[in-house]
Design brief:
five-stranded antiparallel beta sheet
Amino acid sequence: MEREPNLVISSASQRIVEDGLPFKVDIYKLEGGDGWSLEVVTENGTSIVWDDLFDDDRSALEEAVTTIRREGAVAFANGGSNVIPFKN
């Protein structure tokens, strides 16, 4: 039986605070895999995962910080413009 690959967590993963709001930036890949995945988790536990992989972990971190600053920390934390609420 073939073993499952390990998950490699980048040392670039970190907690950041922007405009007083905390974000957890997780950068990871499968052992032996190509490209790094990027996930940002907001204070209330909302997870935002990028569809595209990054060539290196530093590029992923730069993308997270740039996006949070561009969108605005409050807007980003509240889901930004691409979240569609369910109708009641």
